[in-house]
Design brief:
The structure holds 2 protein chains of 2 kinds. By secondary structure, chain A is of the alpha/beta class. Helices cover 34% and strands 17% of the residues of chain A. Classes of the chains: A alpha/beta, B mainly beta.
C-alpha cells in the first residue's frame, strides 16, 4: 500500500504583468506563501522540484538562494505546459518513495508579451539547401501547414468536429464566453472582464476558429505547493490536518504512438490514458467530481477535453457544453477560475495554479466563487510534445 | 533531359518526389506499417529499425483545418493549414487554390496534391506542394 500524500500548503501569485519582479521574485513569493499557508519552513523541506521554461536554467538553485539554502536535492524540471504538474508530481513521487516526508514544488513563468508560442520568424535564404530530418530547403511553417500553438489547437478542435459532427465557430466562442464570465469572480486572474459572444467572435482572428480572447493569455505568474506524507501530517496540528487536501491521484503520461501524431499532435490519447489511470488510483469516476480545472489553452482544446476526461459520453462534448453543465452553476463546473483564456497561462506555473484553485474550493476558502460543498476535484494540464498531468484531490475527512 | 540550366528543380522537402506524377513518399516500417515523413532511428510504434519507401496517395479528404491569420514576420497570411487523410496516411499541408474562409473550406472535402514554384535561386527552382479541391 503506497502511503497517501497531502497538499499541506499552496499559493499562487496574482497573474498578470509583473514588470518589477523576475522569475525568482515570483517563485520566492509563491514558495514562501505556500510554506506559510502550511505552517512550515524551508527547514522542513526534504526536496525542491522547480519548474521554469524561459528563465535560462538552474531556476531551483537560484530560488533556494533567495528563500533558504538547506542542501536538499533540487530537481529542475521542464515539460512544456505540464511543467508545473511535473514539478508537483516529482515531489509527490519522492514522498511516495519514502525519500522524505515533506517537499516543495514551484512553477514560475514570465510570459507577458511573449507573442505566438511555437511560431518561428522566417528570413529569406540565399540558396536552396536541404536541412534537417525532412531535408527542407526553406522553413516549413506556413508552407506545410503550421505547428504554432493557436493553429495546432485549432486543428485539434476541428478534427473533433470532423470525427463527431461539425462544431460551429459560435460553439467554440461560447466556451470562451463562459471562461471570461467565470474570471470576473477571480481577483488573481490576469483578465477578469466579461466578454459577450459578439465581442469574442468579432475580435482579432488568430487561427480560425480561435480569435484572440479564445487563446490562453500570456502573462507572468508563479505557484507553489508543499506536499507532506500521511505519517508526517498526523504529527502536525489539527488545524494543519483539517486544511490538508488529499492527493487521491497523481498521474503523468506522454503521448503513445498513433497514426496521425507526426502531423498533428494527438492530445487526446494521452489525456484519456491519464484520466483512466487517475480515476482508478483515486477510486472515483467523473460523476464524483465537484469541479474540474482543465487545460483550456484554446477554446478548441477545452471542448475535446470534456470528452477526454470522461465528463461526457464519447463524441458528446458539444451536447455536454450546450447543456450548461460546465458553467459554475451547472452540474459539472469547469474552469471556474476563468481558465487559461482569462485567468492566464504563465506556462510553468499553470500545473500548480490549477491545483491551488481546486484546493481553495475543497477547503471552502474560495470566497465569492466557492463551489458549495466541493469535496472531489480534478486538475488537468497538457504540454505539447507531449506530456499530460492529472491530479485528483479530495478534501480532508476531518 | 535537355536544358539543365533552366530545368534544375529541388523539392521543398525530401519526401516530395518530383517524378511524373508528383507524389509524396513515406518511410514505412516493414514490421508494423507505420509511416513517417522524416528520417527515423527506429519505429515509434514498434521499435523496429527497417523501413521502406512507399508512395502516398495523391488524393484525400480534409480531416481538419485552420485558417492562420496571425504569424511571425516572413510568413504570409492568411494560409490554410490542413490535415489530409490520404487513404489512411495523414498528411499535413496547406490548402491551395481555395478562398480561405469557412464558406469555401469544409471538413471532409476531397482534395488532391498540387505543386507550385517557390522561386529560383542559383539556377535552381524550389518546388513546394499543397492540396487543392478536386473540383478545381
Amino acid at each position: 500500500m503506497v502511503e497517501d500524500v497531502w497538499i499541506l500548503g499552496i499559493n499562487m501569485t496574482k497573474f498578470g504583468k509583473h514588470f518589477d519582479k523576475d522569475v525568482v521574485d515570483l517563485g520566492a513569493e509563491a514558495a514562501m506563501a505556500a510554506m506559510a499557508d502550511g505552517g512550515v519552513t524551508m527547514a522542513d523541506m526534504g526536496i525542491l522540484a522547480a519548474g521554469n521554461l524561459r528563465g535560462g536554467g538552474g531556476f531551483g538553485q537560484q530560488l533556494q538562494k533567495q528563500i533558504g539554502q538547506t542542501g536538499i536535492p533540487v530537481f529542475n524540471v521542464t515539460n512544456a505546459c505540464a511543467t508545473g504538474a511535473t514539478a508537483l508530481r516529482t515531489a509527490i513521487m519522492a514522498i511516495r518513495a519514502g525519500e522524505c516526508d515533506m517537499g516543495l514544488a514551484v512553477g514560475v513563468e514570465k510570459l507577458a508579451g511573449a507573442g505566438l508560442l511555437g511560431a518561428v520568424a522566417q528570413s529569406d535564404v540565399d540558396e536552396w539547401q536541404p536541412e534537417g530530418r525532412f531535408g527542407a530547403v526553406a522553413p516549413t511553417d506556413g508552407r506545410i501547414g503550421t505547428a504554432n500553438m493557436p493553429g495546432t489547437f485549432a486543428q485539434v478542435g476541428m478534427e473533433y468536429g470532423h470525427k463527431y459532427g461539425d462544431v460551429s465557430f459560435e460553439t467554440f466562442a461560447r466556451i470562451s464566453v463562459k471562461n471570461h464570465k467565470h474570471s470576473t469572480l477571480n481577483p488573481l486572474a490576469a483578465y477578469s472582464k466579461e466578454m459577450s459572444l459578439e465581442q469574442i467572435m468579432g475580435d482579432i482572428m488568430i487561427a480560425y476558429p480561435n480569435t484572440r480572447p479564445m487563446c490562453s493569455a500570456n502573462c507572468d505568474g508563479g505557484a507553489a505547493a508543499v506536499v507532506v506524507s500521511d505519517a508526517k501530517l498526523k504529527t502536525l496540528s489539527l488545524e494543519q490536518q483539517r486544511r490538508a487536501i488529499k492527493v487521491s491521484a497523481s498521474v503523468l503520461t506522454s503521448d503513445p504512438y498513433t497514426e496521425r501524431c507526426q502531423v498533428l499532435p494527438d492530445v487526446n490519447t494521452l489525456t484519456k490514458s491519464a484520466a483512466a489511470q487517475a480515476y482508478e488510483q483515486a477510486g472515483v469516476g467523473p460523476d464524483d467530481l465537484d469541479l474540474v480545472e482543465l487545460h483550456d489553452c484554446f477554446a478548441t482544446a477545452e471542448l475535446v477535453h470534456y470528452d477526454n476526461l470522461g465528463l461526457c459520453e464519447e463524441g458528446g462534448a458539444v451536447d455536454f457544453f450546450e447543456s450548461g453543465a460546465p458553467w459554475r452553476d451547472g452540474s459539472k463546473p469547469v474552469n471556474v477560475s476563468g481558465g487559461l483564456q482569462s485567468k492566464g497561462h504563465p506556462i510553468s506555473a499553470t500545473g500548480i495554479a490549477n491545483i491551488w484553485e481546486v484546493c481553495h474550493h475543497l477547503r471552502g476558502e474560495a470566497g465569492d466563487r466557492q463551489i458549495e460543498g466541493a469535496r472531489v476535484a480534478l486538475a488537468h494540464v497538457i504540454g505539447l510534445g507531449s506530456a499530460c498531468g492529472i491530479h485528483i484531490l479530495e478534501s480532508s475527512a476531518a | 533531359m535537355t536544358d539543365t540550366a533552366t530545368s534544375a528543380q529541388i523539392p521543398l522537402v525530401d519526401y516530395l518526389v518530383l517524378d511524373d506524377p508528383v507524389h509524396l513518399v513515406a518511410n514505412e516500417c516493414t514490421n508494423c506499417g507505420a509511416r513517417y515523413f522524416d528520417r527515423r532511428n527506429a519505429c515509434a510504434g514498434c521499435f523496429a529499425t527497417d523501413f521502406q519507401k512507399v508512395g502516398v496517395a495523391t488524393t484525400g479528404e480534409v480531416a481538419s483545418f485552420t485558417i492562420v491569420s496571425m504569424a511571425p514576420p516572413g510568413v504570409e497570411v492568411p494560409f490554410v493549414s490542413s490535415i489530409i487523410d490520404c487513404d489512411g496516411t495523414s498528411v499535413r499541408a496547406n490548402l491551395l487554390n481555395v478562398t480561405p474562409d469557412d464558406d469555401h473550406i469544409k471538413l471532409g472535402m476531397k482534395v488532391r496534391l498540387c505543386t507550385y514554384s517557390m522561386g529560383t535561386k542559383g539556377g535552381v527552382e524550389a518546388i513546394g506542394f499543397g492540396f487543392e479541391p478536386v473540383g478545381n
